[in-house]
Amino acid sequence: MTPVFEWKQSDFDKLIANCPDEPVTPFIRKYFPPGARLLEAGCGSGRFVHWLDARGYDIEGLEIGAETVATLHRVFPHLKIREGDVRALPYAENTFDGVLSLGVIEHVIEGLAGPIREMHRVLKPGGVALVIVPSFNLVRRIKYPTGIYHLHALLGYGKRWNPVRRLFGKPPHQAARQPRPAHPPPYKRWPVFGEFFEYRLTKDEFERALATEGFAIVESVPTSLIDGLYHEFGRLFVRFGYFEFHPNAVGRRLNAWLARRPFWHNHMHLCVVQKP
To answer: For a tag site, which of 103, 159, 233, 240 has the least CB within 10 Å?
Structure first.
């Protein structure tokens, strides 16, 4: 269903250090006062659960990876983290003041409706969810019909193709395959070739998916701008290393120029939504 985080202490420490500067953090502070009861649905490494728990939030994490959950229970026994699936949240209706979904629901191959419906169900009336998915931005929409988007995906798939890996003496790639649904959603998938990883949505598609399940949209903003520059132009303008992006001088200027044009190059899209 979703990618499983491989938990490492060194990675976790770095990810915790990044929490204050993450694009979602100002929205957490804006909409959720300390003491609010929160759920992170698909918490991965548990870094935001750890970071917010230390700041007075009553937060619980749900993660599908059994090994990750077991590690977190061993290293941080005080954190409330349980194993579970975002498509069937193990909570009663109207339980939480807020829900965080930070790059999770796009990995559900049958589509976003089920996880969004579950978030709506467990939120209290008036509760708020912060939901982030990858954006099918303007740059990606331009690249798609030209074939550049597909070529990028094909080259990436080639690196994982086992005959190529054997040629370079690498172990075979273990694909986490998901069965193709009978009626796949109308979103652009990534990668175009090979096993499914995620969907990327236009602004209208994402907002419509949330509204269809009963949410009122409060804010809808492009995020992860420098990430988008890296993903679409590679190392030409931005280097990436140990969970940090390092733009060069041209990259900084280009990012600033593109940032004035919403949804042109953002990697992710954040929606703040409320349950009426």
So the answer is: 159
Q: Render pLDDT for 73-104 as a digit per residue (tens, 0 to 9).
A: 999 999 999 999 999 999 999 999 999 999 99
CB 261, CB 14: distance < 8 Å: no
Backbone angles phi, psi at 66, to 5 degrees: -60, -40
Reported as a single tens digit per residue, the pLDDT across 170-226 is 444 444 566 778 788 999 999 887 788 899 999 999 999 999 999 999 999 999 999
CA 145-142-264 angle, 5° bins: 155
Task: Enumerate domains of the chain plus CATH numbers.
Answer: 9-139+176-274 (3.40.50.150)
Single-letter residue type at 1: M
Cβ–Cβ < 8 Å for 132, 102: yes
Q: Residue 83 phi/psi, 5° resolution?
A: -80, 135
pTM over 0.85: yes
Q: What is the DSSP letter of 91?
A: S
